[in-house]
Amino acid sequence: MKDTLFKIYKSISPSFAKKIIPLIDFSRKLKNKPPIPLREKMAEIDYPHLIGKTILLHGVSVGEIMSLENLVKKIKELFPSVNLVITTGTVTGQELAKKKYSSYAEFITYFPLDIYETVEKFLNEINPSVILIAETELWPNFSYCAKEKNIPLYIINGRISDKSYPSYLRLKSFFKFILSCYTGIFAQSELDKDRFIKLGANFGTVEVMKNLKFEIEKKPCDINLEAGSSKVIIAGSTHKGEDSIVFNTYKKLKNKIPDLKLILAPRHLTRLDEINELLKNYNFRFGFRTKEDTFKDNDIIILDTLGELSKIYSITDIAFIGGSFNNTGGHNPLEATVYSVPTISGPSIKNFRDIYSILEREKASFVVKNKEEFYTVLNKLLTDDDFYSETKENCKKCFENQQGALDFIIKKLKDLL
Questions:
Q1: Are residues 238 and 368 in the same domain?
Q2: Of 40, 44, 64, 390, which is the active-site residue?
Q3: What pLDDT is stored for residue 36 in this prediction?
Q4: Structure confidence at residue 1 (pLDDT)
Q5: Which of 46, 114, 313, 326 is the most buried (most CB within 10 A)?
Q6: Residue 45: CATH number of its domain
Q7: Any catalytic annotation for residue 69?
Q8: Concatenated DSSP letters for 259-274?
């Protein structure tokens, strides 16, 4: 069965794919998605001539590319003579990779379409010494071709979601064949390790490495907003439509807690005039970080600077993570959690769904359905001291339990290189 399935899959030709992709692009256009970058994904571009050893590092989209930041930097620090090639699967992932890693990587491109001839051409051009695939990208032709060429192939930060696992199990014999092509599978947790093994991965190739996304360093904070003993809420990376939710909720809470303070950090500073106009509807005293205003004379401080949000979380008590009450897909809650600051997010969290699943499971974060739930959870955190202390401790324990992944991968690379 698996051999028949794979033979059929392997027989798909580049010419056949080129006929199908315009139809896929038409469907994507209807959903306002960009077209597939066909030339790059078909390996029909000019590749650099890389001399020496090469690490191929793949992250499919934004979340995975973000999680690889510390690993990318550590690789170039410890292995400066080794070439680094980074691939992504999505347009947004590609844009982010080029923005963040152009000074680190020798080449950034798209992961090839899983067509045997295309994959073979791609691997011949890049000629990687080792391949690291972030999370769970199980491509039959790619993994088979890498094994044929004796290229060490690893899944790092591996995970299998609750949603995917049942459907993977139904095709266990097929996935067992794919997983047998991997040199090593390094999973985020014991649960993920167990799932890979139950899908047919060799017991001896699967290890727990913990989670790269939790490899965040605390940044020293030199900011004093003079909050005194007042509790401080921060609304980080807010988008259009979210500021009014935050202000209305803050107004209700302030009636109960008069000295409650708020920091608002809009995701895009081009919205400052819009926020300024919105604040005219409220009786709040507010100031701006660029003017060095503090809470001594203000209820609200607008963080209108770049690069300070991640460290200012450390001087707050509770964080709302923006981009979650619209269709943005949320932002990274770990920037606050690393300081043991409990986080609340709206329902749109697709960009960091796996992180939220861990934080929610450990009762270190809250994903709410609407603004009413937002008020309820925020109110409980502010007024129930035991609940708040327990949540802070959960944040701390969650981080401690998830760290160590970077050192794990670097040790493996040292053995390989």
A1: yes
A2: 64
A3: 81
A4: 52
A5: 313
A6: 3.40.50.11720
A7: no
A8: T-EEEEEES-GGGHHH
